[in-house]
Amino acid sequence: MPGRTFRSPDDFNTQLADWLPIANSRVVRRIDGRPIDLVSVDTAAMLSLPPVPPQTAACSQIRLPRDYYVRVLGNDYSVDPSAIGHMVDVAADLRRVAVTREGRVLAEHDRRWSRGLTVTDPLHVESAARLREQFQNPTPTADDADQLVRDLGDYDRAFGVEFRCAASCNEEAVW
């Protein structure tokens, strides 16, 4: 349908419903008739539908980058930044874009039909700020205070090395 623009699948279906009665009542030379008169012939030749509906969502698996956005059909959608660096599953159908990791939903957005948009969930921005703050200002843990620090002189004695400093001993350093 060249020359037309659509805001959503519903808009497309509305425009198509207005256009089909006009198009189907025209005589088409290639089929030697009007499409509306040949619908019964096509219907008789069709197979029955399968018992299980086919999957219609576009699915992929990617490693979530540092900017915590996934690109789906030309648009960027935010994801919970706690999954940065992990493999996530991305599923997009006509209405939704969903991102999951190990069965846990990390993001759900309404699918956008334009291109070049960035869709951001404010909760993902807050989570990213919190994680950034924790990374930049780590809190010391009890394990950090209890860590043993080895005296470097132990290594010198183990390897039989003796270092004397010329500045403190007024002698030449022995290396």
What does the secondary structure layout of this molecule look like, with pairings?
Layout: H1 9-24, H2 35-45, E1 58-63, E2 69-72, E3 75-78, E4 87-92, E5 96-101, E6 104-110, E7 118-119, H3 122-136, H4 142-145, H5 152-158, H6 166-169
Parallel strand pairs: 3-7
Antiparallel strand pairs: 1-4, 2-3, 4-5, 5-6
pLDDT averaged residue by residue: 86
Tally of strands: 7
Distance separating the two termini: 84 Å
Strand order of the largest sheet: 1-4-5-6
Q: What pattern of helices and strands is seen along the backbone?
A: HHEEEEEEEHHHH
Low-confidence stretches: none
Helix coverage percent? 25-40%
Q: Name the overall outline.
A: elongated
Largest sheet: 4 strands, antiparallel
Question: Any idea what the radius of gyration is?
Answer: 33 Å
How many helices? The count is: 6
Relative strand content: 15-25%
What structural class results from the helix and strand content?
A: alpha+beta
Describe this structure in words.
The chain is α+β, with helices and mostly antiparallel strands and 175 residues long. It has helices at residues 9-24, 35-45, 122-136, 142-145, 152-158, 166-169, and strands at 58-63, 69-72, 75-78, 87-92, 96-101, 104-110, 118-119. The model has no long low-confidence stretch (mean pLDDT 86). The radius of gyration is 33 Å and the shape is elongated. The strands form two sheets. A four-stranded antiparallel beta sheet has the order 1-4-5-6, with no helix packed on it. It has six helices and seven strands; from the N terminus they run ααβββββββαααα. Among the domains are: 9-45, no CATH class; 58-136, no CATH class.
